[in-house]
Automatic annotation (TrEMBL):
<keyword id="KW-0732">Signal</keyword>
<dbReference type="InterPro" id="IPR036188">
    <property type="entry name" value="FAD/NAD-bd_sf"/>
</dbReference>
<dbReference type="Pfam" id="PF12831">
    <property type="entry name" value="FAD_oxidored"/>
</dbReference>
<feature type="signal peptide">
    <location>
        <begin position="1"/>
        <end position="21"/>
    </location>
</feature>
<protein>
    <submittedName>
        <fullName>FAD-dependent oxidoreductase</fullName>
    </submittedName>
</protein>
Length: 472
């Protein structure tokens, strides 16, 4: 029996399970997960971020749909929203307000994180080859520095439990931000894994609200920070299922939002533009304020390890975590699982070098996300003593230029969305047409305020009466 063991039942783990089973390279897949997933509350211990805004980019949604055909339709049927880009997004970037250009086929999906995971989990577990073992956590890998041959797992919460060994032809670490892969590998003799960390000390504070009557499906509203001006505060509001909106406030170290409900709307009103505070000020909150602080960028360069062991792969946040405000982690997880499927389908689970191939293929979307996530963060992290590399500084200046041009060029907005939605590789931005447009600059003057429809303007509280706005 060729078995794959997947560590963790988050998005990367669920999609990796499907990828392994559907590739035909294994006969059985066992997912090991500490949490009891029958209990579908947003508060599950292993997924503290589930109470915060989760935007799924088109590239990630389509990778998931390739692995689980029809999953996008199922998300939407369960209450998720499809938001056309850039027409259904109102965003103030550091370079100014983005225009709402005509739809070009780009989109993103908004829903609560528990909904996104539940729909995928239900679908993945219809496959009789995939088994979910809950209440257990992986504590070590079995094997040697050449081959991983299984995992050691024990009770997640109970003490005094005898550890069990589970042998496997393939082990996938999808245990997220808390992944102990580098320690587990070091125990087998695989050391020297390079790592880069850029942490701005960003704090997230999120809360759900009842959507106003007739406003269940609104655009994504986003007021971003402006690192060069020293403003590290931002916020986003998105519609989710069940007639609710979720709002997340973010602030770097020294500018953090608090968990005090009385601070929530005032924080949003005090951003670079009061739009989000104005949207929220008269709404009925449906939850407490949840705060998370573990949000830094952290990249492990597994694909560069010269003696990478056979039959072991890491995916999703286990490879890299990104500042969440750019909404890329889920898509990187899905694209990584798709890379796993392609390599297993082509080479099988036991061919020499296949684990390394997967790691290299998964690194492509990780790199793209890293460039975008760190482009702004380097300005803060420099202030916090972490020196940006020369390459990071160049990438940051280039992305900032493209973003400025995108405020006044439909072509550039589309090219940038190709990459930020993770549908096209970052090299798309190096095409001659993009470089020419970047040199030419924006074709239209900057907007002086958000482009809002009359219906959207009515959602703002009375304090917005004087807000300048361009027509949409
Ligand atoms: C505040 C915040 C907001 C975010 N917003 C967005 C967003 O808008 N869009 C987006 O794309 N991404 C967002 N992200 C990132 C996103 O949450 C992650 O990228 C995504 O969850 C990664 O999926 P994963 O499966 O790799 O890890 P996770 O989803 O974290 O899943 C890991 C799983 O592994 C389990 N596990 C842990 N340890 C063990 C063990 N020893 N043995 C077995 N199982 C284990 C956990 O219980 C969990 O179920 C956000 C992150 C944060 C922190």
């Amino acid at each position: 029996m060729r078995r794959a063991v997947i560590i963790g039942a988050g998005m990367a783990g669920l999609l990796a399970a499907r990828a392994a089973a559907a590739s035909g390279a294994v006969d059985e897949v066992v997912i090991i997960e500490p949490d009891d997933l029958a209990d579908d509350t947003p508060a599950r211990t292993g997924l503290p971020q589930a109470r915060h805004t989760h935007i799924l980019m088109a590239g990630g949604a389509e990778a998931a749909d390739e692995l689980l055909p029809g999953i996008i339709r199922r998300w939407l049927d369960a209450g998720a929203h499809r938001q056309e880009l850039t027409s259904h997004m109102v965003a103030l970037s550091p370079e100014g307000w983005y225009r709402r250009w005509k739809p070009t086929g780009h989109y993103l999906i908004t829903a609560s994180r528990p909904l996104l995971d539940r729909v995928v989990r239900e679908q993945v577990l219809t496959d009789s080859r995939i088994r979910l073992l809950t209440g257990r956590k992986v504590t070590a890998l079995l094997g040697s520095s050449h081959h991983v041959t299984g995992v050691v797992h024990s009770a997640a919460r109970a003490r005094g439990d005898e550890p069990h060994h589970l042998h496997a032809a393939l082990v996938v670490d999808a245990s997220g931000r808390a992944s102990r892969a580098t320690t587990w590998l070091a125990d087998l003799g695989v050391t020297g894994i390079a790592q880069r960390q850029l942490d701005t000390g960003l704090t997230y504070a999120s809360r759900t609200f009842r959507a106003p009557a007739g406003a269940r499906h609104v655009p994504v509203f986003n007021v971003m920070a402006d690192p060069l001006a020293g403003n590290g505060r931002s916020a986003v509001v998105t519609p989710i299922e069940n007639g609710q909106w979720i709002a997340s406030l973010c602030g770097i170290k020294g500018s953090e939002p608090t968990r005090d409900p009385a601070d929530f709307v005032p924080f949003a009103l005090g951003l670079r533009h009061p739009l989000i505070g104005q949207l929220l000020q008269d709404l009925e909150p449906l939850s407490d304020v949840t705060v998370s602080r573990n949000t830094g960028n952290r990249r492990r360069y597994f694909e560069k390890v010269s003696n990478w062991p056979e039959r072991f792969v890491a995916l999703g946040d286990a490879i890299a975590t990104f500042t969440p405000v750019y909404g890329q982690g889920l898509s990187v997880a899905a694209l990584g699982a798709l890379a796993l499927h392609r390599e297993l389908h082509r080479h099988g689970s036991t061919a020499a070098g296949v684990a390394r191939r997967v790691q290299r293929a998964a690194a492509v979307s990780v790199d793209a996300a890293w460039i975008l996530a760190t482009a702004q963060d380097i300005h803060y992290t420099a202030a916090h003593g972490q020196k940006p590399t020369r390459q990071e500084r160049l990438q940051s200046a280039f992305t900032s230029r493209l973003s400025r041009v995108a405020t006044g060029s439909a072509f550039m907005a589309d090219a940038l969305t190709d990459v930020t939605s993770m549908r096209r590789p970052a090299t798309r931005l190096l095409s001659p047409a993009v470089l020419y447009a970047a040199a030419a600059g924006p074709l239209l003057k900057p907007l002086q305020g958000p482009q809002l429809t009359p219906a959207e303007r009515r959602l703002l509280g009375p304090r917005n009466a004087a807000t300048p706005a361009a027509s949409s």
